[in-house]
Amino acid sequence: AQMEIQTAYLKIGDYEICPVPTGLFALDGGAMFGTVPKVLWEKSNPPDEKNRIPMEARALLLKGAKHKVLIDCGNGSDFVAKYGEKLGNKFAEMYAVKPGGPTLLTSLAKHGLKPEDITHVILTHLHFDHAGGATTEQNGQLVPTFPNARYYVQKQNLETASKPNLRERASYYRANFEPLLKTGVLEVLQGAQDDLLPNISVIMSNGHTQGQQIVKISDEKNTLLYCGDLVPTSSHVRLAWVMGYDLNPLLLIEEKEQILQPAADQKWYLYFEHDPYCDAATIMRQGSDFAVKDRFHLHKTKRS
Prior knowledge:
Elements: E1 5-9, E2 11-12, E3 15-28, H1 29-33, H2 38-44, E4 52-63, E5 68-71, H3 79-83, H4 85-94, H5 104-110, E6 120-122, H6 128-131, E7 135-138, E8 141-144, E9 150-154, H7 155-162, H8 178-182, E10 186-189, E11 193-197, E12 200-205, E13 212-218, E14 223-226, H9 249-265, E15 269-271, E16 280-286, E17 289-299
Parallel strand pairs: 1-17, 5-6, 6-9, 9-10, 14-15
Antiparallel strand pairs: 2-3, 3-4, 4-5, 7-8, 11-12, 12-13, 13-14, 15-16, 16-17
């Protein structure tokens, strides 16, 4: 897909905005675009021979003097340790998890950080491609990947993950959150939070799964919205482009409309967890819908 992508350096409040790619994987294109016909989505997201499209699992690091905040953690890598031999190997194959690319820890290292340096981890929700990197295997035990961090999740989502419905059972694994509960590092939030941390608030969304939290980072100059699975890629900016995975597509469309209106009018940056081509975009209104205005790669340092 040929598209023009600009580069930008962003600082919001005290935080440098640092994209953290954790590695490519692939999901069925039809599932990713729901009722949108393939002739429309394959132009921007060309599929492989198994009809899967490439997806990034892009976390975000907010690097401040005092706080080092990580939003989501990608798929993780120790699938066999977490999901057992049979499922672990099948998992990597089914989702075409590519070894050899960037990982959560190599990407953090590029920003000069070790797992011990992370102070807070905000999980939008506990699906494996968002929370898989939250725990890791050490000496045969599953432990939090970031030993000094407080983790945050919504109560509603933790309950959903603990007793998943039939449709979501393949997306929630206890190995990704149980060690957080056991070690007492998981803070369970109830509903939207205006000031979870300095310049950071969370907005509720229930269309994709129950209790997803969308993270908003804002100061008087700039706002960046970490979209999670509300708007997984820049192709999903259009209201009707929702995923087959979404539990309640009509509710999701309503939530998108409410959130994207101020985003378009106030020139927010939308940050995409799953877009393999760009980190973020600004959007504009297009009739009663929305369209991408500019796409961006976000740089970790000011270019002189």
